[in-house]
Every structure is written in C-alpha cells, then in structure tokens.
Amino acid sequence: MATKPIFVIDNGASTSKSRMNTNENIRILPNCIMKSKFYPRRTFIADQIDNECPNKTSLYYQLPFQKGYLVDWNIEKQVWDYLFGKMSFKSTGLLMTEPYMNLNFIRETMDQIFFEEYEVASFARYDPATLSAYQYECDTKSNYVLVVDSGFSFTHIVPFYQGRKILDGMTRIDVGGKLLTNQLKNVITYRQLLVMNETYIINELKENVCFISLDFQDDMKKARLPLSQNPHALDYVLPDYNEIKQGYIQPPSSSSVSISNNIDTTKKNSTKQQQQQQQQVIRMSVERFTIPEILFRPSLIGIDQAGIAESIYNSVEELPEHIRPSLYNNILLIGGNCLFPNFKQRLENELRSMIKDDYPIRITLPEDPITYALNAGVTLTNSSDYANYCVTKREYDEHGVSICHRKFTENY
Predict the structure, then answer these.
(1) β-strands 331-334, 144-150: how paired?
(2) Which comes out higher in pLDDT, residue 58 or 205?
(3) Beta strand pairing status for 171-173 and 234-237?
(4) CB 148 within 8 A of CB 308
C-alpha cells in the first residue's frame, strides 16, 4: 500500500476525472473555461458552469487542448488551481495522464510545473492506455491486452505485452467525440435549426439519443418510412433554461399545429397548445445512427482512414502471427464513445467477419469506461512497487527533467 496519499487525475481533453487514492469520491469536471453571452463579465471555470450559470445557451469555450495536445497552459493552470483548491502537495503525490505520443517539450513543461510551482512530493505521468492495461492485467492475469480508447479528440488502438506498448501496432483514428458533436451541429443547422453556437446543448443531445447501428442499411430503410412507422424518429425538446431546464425526449408529432374549429375549446388545451408552440423541438431520425457511424466509417465525411474495427484488424495483423489470437481475445474498450448503445456488439460483429474463424474474440466493456483509467491509476498508486513508477521531489532536485524522461519511458 502507498505510504503517502496520491492525487490521481485523468486529464482528458474534454473532462478531468480525479480522486484521491485513499477514498472513492470521483470528481468529474469540464476541462475548460467557458463564457456566456448572458454574463459577459464572468468567466466560468470547470463545473462552475453547472452550478453558477443558469442559462447555458451560446456558451463560448476556451479549451487548453487542441487536436489532442495540451497547448494553452494558462487555461489549464486555471482549471488545475480550481481543482486543487487549497490542497497542499508537500506531503501528497500526483499521478496524471498525458496524451498518447506526447511531445517532449510538453512533457518537460508539465514536469517543471508540478515540481517547481506546485512542489508535489512525487509525480508520475502515463497515458490512459498504459494505466488501463495495468489494471486489466491485474484483473485477468493476461500478458496481452489491446486497448481501444475512443475519447474526445481521437480514437487510439494500443496493443500491450506484459505492460509495455507494442509500438508497431499503435494506430490513431482522427475521429472522437468532438468531431461527432460538430458534425451533428452541422447536420441539424443545415436541415432544421441554427445550432452552431450550441455545443453544450447538442453534446447533451448526442449523448441522449444517438446509438450505433447493427445493420446500417436496414436502419436507413426504416428511417425512410412514414413518421408513424419510423422506429427511429423522435422529438428532442431543447431547454430554454426558463421553464425547461433540461432537454428531453418525446414521441414525434406532426410539425403543424392543428387548429380546432370548436369554439368551446377549453382554456387548458389552449394553454398547452401555446406552450408546445413556444418549444424548440429538433426532429431526430437518421441522425441518431449516422453520426456515430463515423466511428466505424470515417469515409462518410471524407476522412481517408479505416474505421475502428478495420483499424484493430490492421493493427493486429501487423504483429507476429503467434500473438494475434491473444490480442483478439483481450480487447479492452475505454473512453466516452464506448457508451453509445450497441458499440461493443457492432465491433464484435465486424471483427468476427474479418478474422479467422478459429481466433477467439473477447471484448471487455467496463461498467464505466470513462473512469476506468482513473481507477486504474489508483490501483497503481496503491501497489507495492509504485515507487518504481514515480519520481520524487528529491530525485527531481538532483537530476532535473532527465530523471522523469528516463523513469516514465522505462514503464511504457
């Protein structure tokens, strides 16, 4: 067990997930700064937007991450300061995730900030797949694991053997949750309603109604049926943050409001009809499954890359034949996009059609793929050999950033 408390942070491009290794309280914050047109003089840091901003329309985002890499340290430090609060790191260590294939100058800057400005007692940084592979191997005792991390900026496919990356099999797909949300904004704006400034609301819409199709052509045929026969059609009522605080789903209804010829229409029905007329409703049908389909077919929007299933196949087939069955039999899914309904089943179906019949397939989808890497980091900090994975303040003072580069690279 760890002799000192360690603060663990999965510092994602979309959200920051954190907890102490001594308790189970997980804190999930937006990793950004936001401004609202309704409060022009106010800057909202992280979850202040949920607690202190009543109206979340037309939010302006300032993100520390761009294209998967940490580029704006001023914004990120404000989020970290808010997250740490009055925490003293004199006797507390820190474990933080970093982007895949991170640039060396970003790594060195991160090491310097935490040792020299925050003065942490110890520090370690590893990408989410490395931590997840560690947890998976502890749970299953398997030497092999293929981690599929589909997050905010990208989707990464990372094979491991005994806790170390097999670099020849690493693959990145330039499709993540941010791209899907932006594509959904484009489609809705073109077809129905101008929502290009409503990232917060459309992201909620995506998470609430979208799903992965198990038979894309069949679902397309169903989506062309009349409204009463279309199983995928639904109406999503947008929040106005006055009467409606949260968007919600309702059965699809005719867009035109019928006017009764009965002069004795009740006041109750009239009031209800007026409320319906004032609601902003987005009709969702084919968009529910064509947007997430980009994960499996990026070519739909002109991205010249293979989808997730094909990329996994290509990644594994690049490796020696004798380890391929073990990788197909130990696939681990992490990241927010894995929460789309049918994601695991679609991936298994496509892989089964590609690989040899005698190769086994076992895909593990954790109960919460978003916090899996965070909890894996906690497991690592509580292990007896964590000292081999981290750099102490004394080691840093003696050797500088070179000790960080050497020690963290050894455990990749």
Answers:
(1) parallel
(2) 205
(3) unpaired
(4) yes
Q: Are strands 164-165 and 155-161 parallel, antiparallel or unpaired?
A: antiparallel
pLDDT given at position 257: 32
Question: If pLDDT is split at 50, 70 and 90, which confidence band does 3 have?
Answer: low
392 SS3 class: strand
Measured distance CA(105)–CA(401) in Å, rounded: 11
Residue 94 and residue 42 in contact, taking contact as beta carbons nearer than 8 Å: no
**What tokens does 180 get?**
């899907």
Q: What residue spans of 16-103 are helical by DSSP H?
A: 48-52, 73-84
Q: Which amino acid is at 112?
A: Q
CA 32 from chain centre, in angstroms, equals 14
**CA gap 42, 162 in Å, rounded:** 49
| C-alpha closest to that of 118 among 73, 75, 87, 82 | 87
Distance CA 171, CA 403 (A): 28
In the three-class reduction of DSSP (H, G, I as helix; E, B as strand; rest coil), residue 349 is classed as helix
Rounded to whole angstroms, the Cα distance separating 134 from 377 reads 9
pLDDT band at 411 (very low <50, low <70, confident <90, very high): low
**For 167-207, what is each residue's pLDDT tens digit?**
899 999 999 999 999 999 999 999 888 989 889 999 999 99
- CA–CA gap between residue 305 and residue 293 (Å, rounded): 13
Show contacts of 102-111: CB within 8 Å, 24+ apart. 102/69, 102/127, 103/69, 104/405, 106/69, 106/70, 107/404, 107/405, 107/408, 108/401, 108/404, 108/405, 109/73, 110/70, 111/391, 111/396, 111/401, 111/404
Q: Which residues contact 343 (CB under 8 A, 6 or more apart)?
A: 212, 292, 295, 333, 337, 365
In this predicted structure, what is the pLDDT of residue 34?
92
Measured between alpha carbons, how far is 177 from 153 in angstroms, rounded to an integer? 6
Residue 32 pLDDT more than 80?
Answer: yes
User: DSSP secondary structure string, 263-290?
Assistant: TT--HHHHHHHHHHHHS-EEEESTHHHH
Question: Rounded mean pLDDT of 72-89?
Answer: 91
Q: Which two tokens stand for residue 326?
A: 């073990």
